[in-house]
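Summary of Year 1 activities. Much of the first year was spent building the evaluation harness for sequence design. The harness presents a backbone, in tokenized form, and records the residue chosen at every position. We chose the following record to illustrate the format because it has been used consistently in internal testing since the harness was completed.
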């Protein structure tokens, strides 16, 4: 099942994509899903970020290939950081290149979306707390990350958390191909089988630190191949079994397109 958020006639709703149509969900998708009878063509709606997280918890250095690329040792425990919900944008939205940075990078990632309140979840029970999976671009001001020696500013700009195009609920995440394209040129190619800490370990670790809420997002890390983007670029994160998330880079000060 593919769960989306969308706008139509200035109203936002959740829905389920079935072929070329969207069937509206009554309420939110975090409990038993109930749909209405009406359907809309996908071509007549605007897809938004598929969830509205209270927080985004992201993983640093969680692919062996990326750790080697960056010249870092394997972390002894999951390395986590936060991105604010104000950074969220959806598919086809614009990533704003901040004037404070001279290098903004793409980082294609698999995102996990939480389905219900999660606190101290055991590794054996993590699937009970997962709504599904989506594509994610952990946009990063690389020069500011290196300058600050911590990641809040570099990872937290508005539009630096692209999610979409939907939440895929029927997916086994253990061995998924992930690719990132810049202007249709392949830049990143990895597989979730290369994760240092798997999804069960990640959710167990994070939920022993903080309570996860319905709609919260966990970005599971990026494989090797990170690199810069510039205004005018088109970036695409493609994940096997999910689909493709496309965004566009624009200069700071231009008209913007955000999640809502």
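For this record, the design step produced the sequence shown next.
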């Amino acid at each position: 099942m593919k769960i989306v958020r969308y706008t139509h006639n200035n109203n936002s709703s959740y829905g389920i994509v079935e072929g070329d149509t969207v069937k509206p969900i009554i309420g939110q998708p975090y409990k038993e899903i109930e749909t209405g009878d009406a359907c809309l063509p996908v071509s007549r709606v605007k897809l938004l970020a598929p969830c509205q997280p209270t927080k985004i918890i992201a993983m640093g250095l969680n692919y062996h290939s990326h750790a080697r690329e960056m010249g870092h040792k394997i972390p002894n425990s999951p390395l986590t950081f936060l991105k604010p919900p104000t950074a969220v944008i959806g598919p086809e939205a614009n990533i704003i290149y901040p004037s404070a940075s001279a290098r903004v990078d793409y980082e294609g990632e698999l995102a996990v979306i939480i389905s219900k309140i999660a606190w101290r979840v055991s590794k054996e029970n993590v699937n009970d707390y997962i709504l599904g999976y989506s594509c994610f671009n952990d946009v990063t001001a690389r020069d500011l990350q290196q300058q600050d020696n911590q990641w809040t500013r570099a990872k937290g700009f508005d539009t630096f958390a692209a999610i979409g195009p939907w939440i895929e609920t029927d997916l086994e995440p253990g061995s998924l191909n992930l690719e990132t394209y810049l202007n249709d040129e392949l830049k990143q190619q990895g597989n979730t089988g290369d994760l240092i800490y798997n999804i069960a370990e990640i959710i167990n670790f994070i939920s022993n630190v903080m309570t996860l809420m319905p709609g919260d997002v966990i970005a599971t890390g990026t494989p090797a191949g990170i690199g810069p983007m510039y205004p005018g670029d088109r970036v695409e994160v493609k994940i096997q079994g999910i689909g493709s998330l496309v965004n566009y880079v624009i200069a700071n000060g231009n008209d913007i397109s955000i999640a809502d």
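Helices lie at 64-70, 142-148, 152-156, 199-207. Quantitative recovery figures across the full test set are reported in Table 2.
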